[in-house]
Amino acid sequence: MATWSNFNLQNSASPLMEQIIFFHDHTLIILIMITILVGYLMINLFFNKYINRFLLEGQMIELIWTIIPTITLIFIALPSLRLLYLLDELNNPLITLKSIGHQWYWSYEYSDFNNIEFDSYMINYEKSNINNFRLLDVDNRIILPMNNQIRIMVTATDVIHSWTIPSLGVKIDANPGRLNQTNLFINRPGIFFGQCSEICGANHSFMPIMIESITIKNFINWINNYS
């Protein structure tokens, strides 16, 4: 989860988020190099007195400053396309979780098991245990097994919402009348927080998402006890 004074991305808890962070760093290095080069050239132009009254065209320099940006864009575009295809890749998921957005809470259905569905509301911080996270804790957490491929189906009943978990690299819109699909692979146990990231009305800020990642053995026990 995000902490005070943290300007970086959250620590990843999935292979996809690791790849997103690598791509972010890769692109940022290229942008820093471009900024330094352009800044250096502009400062030089401001502070020198060179002049050429007979300069009308420079085909070679124009060719160079067309080809170099093209190559730079290719270095950004190829990893970006690879990452886009990775985000859509879904191989033999273990379970399917259906997430339905409402104003202003989420409801969940475990489609592979009978009668496992529940609503998830934000806990009132003032009336709850002081150890809860303000605006992030919910009364019913999503329980998911770690180290397994999980399919997420997302939709909404009223307005557009967005199901977002930053540390897992997941952000998918919940549209009324449309079923969107994404996938998760959580590689460590823990509790991961998210929120709706589409402005959906008056209480948009108060529909958090909370995932608890546990071992497959504990997940099976939870399924058996829930049923």
UniProtKB/TrEMBL annotation:
Molecular function terms, GO-annotated: copper ion binding; cytochrome-c oxidase activity
TM regions (residue ranges)? 20-43, 63-87
Which family does the record claim for this protein?
Belongs to the cytochrome c oxidase subunit 2 family.
One GO process term, biological-process aspect? ATP synthesis coupled electron transport
Cofactor(s) the protein requires to work = Cu cation
Keyword NAD, does the record have it?
Answer: no
Describe how the cofactor binds. Answer: Binds a copper A center.
Q: What is its main location?
A: mitochondrion
Task: Tell me what reaction this enzyme catalyses.
Answer: 4 Fe(II)-[cytochrome c] + O2 + 8 H(+)(in) = 4 Fe(III)-[cytochrome c] + 2 H2O + 4 H(+)(out)
Which keywords annotate this record?
Copper, Electron transport, Magnesium, Membrane, Metal-binding, Mitochondrion, Mitochondrion inner membrane, Respiratory chain, Translocase, Transmembrane, Transmembrane helix, Transport
Q: What is this protein called?
A: Cytochrome c oxidase subunit 2
User: What Pfam families would the database entry show?
Assistant: COX2 (PF00116), COX2_TM (PF02790)
What InterPro entries does the record tag this protein with? Answer: CcO_II, CcO_II-like_C, CcO_II_C, Copper_CuA, Cupredoxin, Cyt_c_oxidase_su2_TM_dom, Cyt_c_oxidase_su2_TM_sf
Establish whether keyword Transmembrane is in the entry: yes
Indicate the segments forming the Cytochrome oxidase subunit II transmembrane region profile domain, all copies.
Answer: 1-91
**PROSITE patterns the record matches:** COX2, COX2_CUA, COX2_TM
Provide the topology term for how it sits in the membrane: Multi-pass membrane protein
One cellular component term (GO) for this entry is:
mitochondrial inner membrane
Q: Which Gene3D superfamilies match?
A: 1.10.287.90, Cupredoxins - blue copper proteins
Residues in domain Cytochrome oxidase subunit II copper A binding? 92-225
What do we know about how this protein assembles, alone or with others?
Component of the cytochrome c oxidase (complex IV, CIV), a multisubunit enzyme composed of a catalytic core of 3 subunits and several supernumerary subunits. The complex exists as a monomer or a dimer and forms supercomplexes (SCs) in the inner mitochondrial membrane with ubiquinol-cytochrome c oxidoreductase (cytochrome b-c1 complex, complex III, CIII).
Summarize the protein's role.
Component of the cytochrome c oxidase, the last enzyme in the mitochondrial electron transport chain which drives oxidative phosphorylation. The respiratory chain contains 3 multisubunit complexes succinate dehydrogenase (complex II, CII), ubiquinol-cytochrome c oxidoreductase (cytochrome b-c1 complex, complex III, CIII) and cytochrome c oxidase (complex IV, CIV), that cooperate to transfer electrons derived from NADH and succinate to molecular oxygen, creating an electrochemical gradient over the inner membrane that drives transmembrane transport and the ATP synthase.
- List the subcellular locations: Mitochondrion inner membrane
Task: Give the highest taxon in the source lineage.
Answer: Eukaryota
